[in-house]
Amino acid sequence: MNAPKLPRHEIATANGATPARPRRSPEQIARGALQNLERWSRAIAPPPPAKMLRPPIPAVVAALATLYVVIGSMFVFDAPASHWARHEPGWLRAAFEKITNLGLSGWFLIPFAAILLWLAAAMSPALSRRSRGVLAALAARFGFLFLAIGVPGLFVAIVKRMIGRARPYVGGGGHDDPFSYMPLVWRPEYAAMPSGHATTAVAAAIAIGAIWPRTRPIMWLYALIVMASRVLVLAHHPSDVIAGALTGAAGACLVRRWFAARRLVFYGHDLRADPAPSWRRVKAALQEAGFGT
To answer: Would you say 138 and 104 are in contact if contact means Cβ atoms under 8 Å apart?
Structure first.
């Protein structure tokens, strides 16, 4: 008489191996991903206590000083900077026309969004508790990066068109008028203040530096180069760039406090990033989720 056949996962368990996780259909993966994204969104949606969003006094003083510099730049630096940029060497303009594209938010938002979707699809109740915790920690970090860069960028994309400040190249006869405005026209040539590239670059420098402190020098060098490029290609005045930097810094710091209030990614008392999962645990979680070998 033949012995009854055991299911494959029971055979694996009997042999001392880790049982294979049952494969999920594409519909199950998509449904699980949507549920995970909804759950993660609910975790950060409610407003935190007001005291967590209240900026410290030094930050307020720095913001006011930066606003003073923005206003002063309109009168002192904007027109001379644009005049110089109009007469800069052609090779310099050509080089910075390429460099300035590194300030586009898509360089950050697209890969971060892709990683979040991938993590949402990989997360499953069938995983061990440790693996679910590792994937959730990664999702919180990349969710912070996405929002810390995307929220200030979205704000600027709307506000700059409401302000309607002319870009330096709009001035006729080779002369720039830093006080030319057409509010609410929603035209690209009247969307100079604040600079979206500067907002993205500074927000990225703060957000990525908050997660990985060792990257701060290279990220701030990147931000300064992008900010300078916007003036050199006649896309912005110096005051536009400074205003964008202020907006990016304020937005990224606000999102950081928002996450810290929920004890996500950062400690609430000093805003330091909490320890990330080790690479060994990340690798083990990915293997259990069906990725890697």
So the answer is: no
Range of the domain at 241: 48-288
Note the pTM of the prediction, 2 decimals.
0.88
Integer Cα distance of 211 and 108 in angstroms: 14
Any domain includes 40: no
* 3-class secondary-structure state, position 18: coil
Ramachandran assignment for 38, one of left (phi > 0), alpha (psi -120 to 50 degrees), beta (any other): alpha
In a domain, 26, yes or no: no
How many folded domains does the chain comprise?
Answer: 1
**Is residue 108 domain-resident?**
yes
Report how far residue 199's alpha carbon sits from residue 158's, in angstroms, rounded to the nearest whole number.
13
Under 8 Å between Cβ of 104 and 156? no
Structure tokens at 251: 């937005």
CATH number, domain with residue 235: 1.20.144
Nearest to 119 by CA among 32, 41, 42, 44: 32
For 277, the 3-state DSSP assignment is coil
pLDDT per residue as tens digits for the range 264-282: 999 988 899 999 899 999 9
For 181-222, write each residue's pLDDT tens digit: 999 988 999 999 999 999 999 999 999 999 999 999 999 999
Q: What are 103's two structure tokens?
A: 């300030």
Q: Tokens for 287?
A: 């293997």
State how far Cα 31 lies from the chain centre: 26
- The verdict on residue 41 lying in a domain is no
Q: Residue 245: which H helix or E strand, with range?
A: helix 238-261
Query: Burial, 203: exposed, middle or buried (Cβ in 10 Å; 0-12, 13-18, 19+)?
Result: buried
Token pair of 264 as six digits: 């996500």
